[in-house]
Amino acid sequence: MKKDDLIRLMEARGGRITTKAAREAGFSNTLLALLEREGSVERETRGVYALTTVPLDTFAVIALRWPKAVFSHGSALYLHGLSDRVPARMDVTCPQGYQSPALLEEFPDTRIHTSVGKRFELGVQEGLSPTGTPIRLYDPERCICDLLRQRRQGKAELQLFSNVLNAYMRSKEKNLPKLARYADAFGLSDDLRRYTEVLS
Fold first, then answer.
1. How far apart are CA 67 and CA 45, in angstroms?
2. How confident is the model at residue 199, as a pLDDT?
3. Which three-class secondary structure state does DSSP give residue 129?
């Protein structure tokens, strides 16, 4: 049954699918509409459908609807387990010039940061949302550099930064050469050195 095949595909993708991905897999929009009428799936936003058994997951909805957005700052720190603060507002970074008014209309509390050229791509990795949908987010080293820049601008509290850096230093997955390389790329080497000396 085509319906069962589509449901299995959605289950393998964390319970969600875009109309584009469904079409590419050989399923019609009509089939999605039929599953919606039957109550098996629901439309979460334009072009994004979820199984009705799947919990709400804002990370997943944003990632599927706005694939150029990369989860960053507090949102990425939370996903990496470097911060226990559940994000009250989503943080995403988009390439400079990317227009996303619909994102702010649907999720008005979202903070949209911008980055240019190679800096935008620096540290992008694949990950999973809380319900298992593939998403793009910045790696821990990029998140720390973004936090360093916010500290320099007086936009990030010292306690948060200290907690994040301490958690990173305790992590078995830390990559200090990569962190130093990123800090150099963003002109933050002196800032990083100063904070690591204070914490050591």
1. 14
2. 67
3. coil
